[in-house]
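## retry 2 of 3
previous attempt timed out at serialization; input unchanged, resubmitting
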Amino acid sequence: GLDQGIRRIADVAREVLGDNTIIVLSSDNGGSVWFGGLNEPLRSGKHTSFEGGVRVPAFAVDLSGNYMITGGKEFKHLFHISDWLPTFLSWAGAAGVVGELNLDGRDQSRALLTDTAARDDVLLELYTAKDSHDGSESAAYRKGKYKLIQ
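## retry succeeded, writing output
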């Protein structure tokens, strides 16, 4: 199953890459409700800005124990997929590059180590009919526990 597969990935990563390795597994969006995806108790799913479409399970394993809280802690703060790149750059000692790249994501390295919030807002999506594959328009912004969807 998935648990054994992840264990094998972690074992091989430790063997090949060493202890200074972090493994992240994350979905890109919620399940497709049109094809049997079930995102309960969250509303809706893939291709929507509702929680069932944007809140997904993920986990990260720090084989070194130096970069994140250890012991299977649940991180309950806001974290966007775009936050991974600046976080990885920070862990790699290249945090200075983040400003030069003009990234949307935020460095969450300190937040993952101290279980604190690095952000309280995120632009989930913003596209026009010209930008979309089907001519639709969408905008979604979250601030704290509130979300605006248009």
